[in-house]
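Q: How would the structure tokens look for this protein?
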Amino acid sequence: MESLAGKTIAVTGAASGIGRSLVLALAKRGANVALADRDAAGLAETVKLLGNAHQLSQSFDVTEPGALENFIAATVTSFGQLDGLINNAGLSVVAPFEHTPREDFARVMAVNFDAVVEGCRAALPRLKQRSGKTWLVNISSVFGIMPYETQTAYCASKFAVKGFTETLRIELAQTDPRISVVCVHPGGIKTAVARNAKFIRGMDSTENNIMTAEKFDAAARTTPEAAAEVILKAMERNNLRVRIGYDARIIDWLVRLMPKTAPTLLARIMSA
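A: Here is the predicted structure in token form.
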């Protein structure tokens, strides 16, 4: 099992939820942590919780041109190395595709997918310089395994993360096998992602099937702390495909077993 002690790991979306839990758990393992989020107040609270841990923090929007490159460069300058990047920042808009404004769809894709690509692009040259095990960890979702109505933008972005990550894994396995490329599919996690999502109402027959914040909170069974532990243990044990929560494992199994009917069945259960 690979130790994370002494490693330098960068994490986006670290102001709350899984991202905050990741940096706290990394620090407890003796890792250096670089943390980023556009929520400056939440990021400051995470920094406060880290106490005397070796850390670097930057507040920025991951979609800003050059922001991720600057973040990775600052991490290397501060710690002399980069051993891993966890692309965790994400957001959602809830509406059927025909009611989703173009700018909202584009924003979700920019944060959830484009920023993952740019993060990997910035981190990869630094990871190649290391002689030991390194990591690229990209957070997809259970909605990167199954579709769900009113989540066209979110599902599109998370399916894209899955495809990108799995393809990058194949490429790097041939050229740089020391770099572990991990794709993470969280199920229902007790975070603010649903409460922070943009909801667009007035959707006729789909109104009752919206994954509201209340429904999401009721269905979420896994804490951010537990999710972070699953991710870090996967890094330590070189598990490259990670499903978090009993719900994610069941959904994954059903979609594989019944690819045509499972998504509709699962959507009915989840929206009930």
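Residues 8-271 form a domain with the Rossmann fold fold (CATH 3.40.50.720).

Residues 205-209 have pLDDT under 50 and may be disordered.

Upvote if useful.
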